[in-house]
Amino acid sequence: MTFSPQAITEAAVASFAQCDNPRLKQLMQSLVRHLHAFAQETQLTEAEWMAGIQFLTATGQKCDDVRQEFILLSDTLGLSMLLVAMHDGAQHGATEATVLGPFHTPDAPALANGSDLSNGAPGEPLYVSGRVLSAEGKPLSHAKIDIWQADAEGLYDVQRSELETQRRARGIIETDAQGCFAFWSVLPEAYPVPTDGPVGQMLLSSARHPWRPAHIHFLIESAGHQPLVTHIFREGDQYLDSDVVFGVRPSLVGQFAQHAAGTAPDGRQLSQPYWTMAYEFSMQAS
Ligand SMILES: [Fe+2]
Predict the structure, then answer these.
(1) Residue 111 near residue 199, CB atoms below 8 Å
(2) How far is the CA of 97 from the centre of ligand 1 (A)?
(3) At 118, which CATH number?
(4) How far is the CA of 149 from the centre of ligand 1 (A)?
(5) What is the residue range of 163's domain?
(6) Model's pTM, two decimal places?
């Protein structure tokens, strides 16, 4: 029996016809249609698809407890940000969301509001303060704020094998009764996504740079509201217009102010220059 290319596609789509989960059936049939259309459009060769299988295999093999190469692949192909943009509730007045990225960990230390979460991370001191509000402007007390960022060398703690399981420039704080929060950290710097794996090879082979503009990650949770996954980017960064994961939104660019040594807003005495950044987050009701 011979099949035309169209008949093969139709047979593969029809093979899911008995699936009793309608959403799974829709996803699988659509996936088959689009995969087959991709192969037809590009006249994909068997050797090229084998290279693709080897690439996907290597992507999976690069993953471990703290390295998520598949998230990086999704991010660098723009798929992660597309899903964020499709489902973001920011049109209702909430802070815009952006990608989670591959460096969130579930074990960040819980710290008191106002704490220094840098824990030895290299970088100039940075004092971040602000409020967490409902989309209507009501302060949200006891909102949980999970924070993580790269240091002055552009590295996350999990990328430093010498730290083992030590966490730094990472922590979880809670807003106070007025919805206010503050913490000390270090000034984030731009960093390249990891280029020592298959996704990095894909970027370099495609004449794409691997850089992300400097930012701080936030995951904010408050009862009765949708979790907010976002970043605050550092204004003036040279990569704001070419983020390798397409995550920048103008509303998420924060104003970072540099200060001479002296007394910080919380009374801390600094013997070196330091930075401040303030931001108000608005949460979408669930
Ligand atoms: Fe990041």
Answers:
(1) no
(2) 14
(3) 2.60.130.10
(4) 6
(5) 73-283
(6) 0.90
